[in-house]
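pinging the channel bc i need a second pair of eyes. not urgent but kinda urgent?? the chain im working w is below, pasted from the shared doc
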Amino acid sequence: MADASPLIAFARIDHLPTLVKTLGSIIIPQSVADECTKDSFRPGAATIQKSIHANMINVHKDDLATDQLNHLKTFLGPGESAAIVLALELNAGLLVDEKLARNAASQLKIKINRVFFF
């Protein structure tokens, strides 16, 4: 499970395949896919779109209308909120960069994936 910012960062340096190899798979909610690809001229957008079409990144519909999602949206963005709720639903780890989102996920006992490249 991933939020937009880490995907964009890895796409910009052409390392999405490395990220997939490290994590095993990447699942994102539709709202994260939309955020990453809404402007095709934005750095990383075309790479992410190609990765979605190649099934390297799997997109999950945003159909999780829950109290948890509504609560998270009061202090997080829609993509971060959807990624956290989806990680919770799928019992998956989460790749997210913002401290507030990491703290919210940690409180829900969601494993935070940390990816480092040296």
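so The two ends are 22 Å apart (CA to CA). and Residues 4-107 form a domain with the Rossmann fold fold (CATH 3.40.50). — does that match what u expected or am i reading it wrong
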